[in-house]
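User: Could you check the structure of this?
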Amino acid sequence: MKKALLVTRVSGFIPQHEMNNVKILQEMGYEVHYATNLQVVVYGTDNRRLEGTGIITHQVDFQKSPLSRDVSRAYQQLRQLMLEESFDLVHCHMPLSAAITRMAAWKVRKQTGKQVPVLYTAHGLHFYTGAPLRNWIYYPVERYLSRYTDRLILMNREDFERGRKFPIRGSVEYVPGIGIPLEGYQPVQLRQTAKGSENHRPVIEKLIGRELAPETKILVTIGELSARKNHGLLMDMMKELKDLDLCLLIGGLGDQEEKLRKMILEKGLEGRVFLPGYVKDVKQVLQEADCYVFPSVQEGLPVAVMEAMAAGLPIVAAKIRGVTDLIEHGQGGYLVQGFDAADFAVKVRRLFTEKYGQSAVPRKLRRYQMGEWNQKRISAFSREVVDQRMREIYGQVLAEKSGGIA
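Assistant: Sure, the predicted structure tokens are below.
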């Protein structure tokens, strides 16, 4: 049987983001293997989601820092795994694990002479317009490693335009994200007109441990509680909005949780800002919410924003790479320049006060119009669209049997 190897630095990434690709490879007759650090689980609390998937797992001691002494060990572990299993295709993700994987695959190619296509999906290059200078150290690394890459897959237009200039062995491909399943989301029109639908919020109320007043509006953001997600800005935003009956739910786990809880107390936001931890029923939470807020400082093409769009929510987000691929300012929401909490507050306030429509017809809040726009827009990023692109890419590299790494 043909074998494909998927590689990520941390466990949980494949079951969270890449199961569609796993299924495509399995349909193509591949036995799928997964090399990762099984001791470091992100996007969940354990590895149970890998059970019953048919994926064969391998422990590799990846660490977060590229300066760690374990980088050499991870390289040797990967190289040995590739020699033992003789894979027919390698698809890697995440910057450090992708760099190590491509170097190990190059070495194995030299040792065995076997042409093995190597794909790297960058879910957001570290270097981007406006990135800190330290991030650009990755630019020469990625440019160099592109010569060992048969397909460099990029998810936003800025990365794609920059990647096209690399001296890549194969080609650079644009794929619009990981593919969002659109089934099961209620159209905005139904949510707006169904009697009491907006005030029926059992999942959110269970998460925060209290009943909300019918008139309370709910802001939501879901993701890892990390510095990159910039949730502290939302605390300042909520302080600016104290006169409105709003609450904010920040779902997720991460190393910033204690800091955020302290900010809630310091800014007097108890009972208005909630940290419920890992959220399982994301779809239902989004459909019970009124607005999605997203202050992240760095993204590739944010899945969280795409899911909120599918749910028909208006988005208030920082104007960053990736987000601008999804949201048009004034159409699907508002984009905030410069990570300004006061400006975030202004845009949120506008969502709950500004109306549109001619005076001769019933006037609706603009957030409904924006939610409708988002539900139409997100079809270009659907699972069907992305799956078709990935089938094309896998088919192309497999047809180029002599096009492995050199």
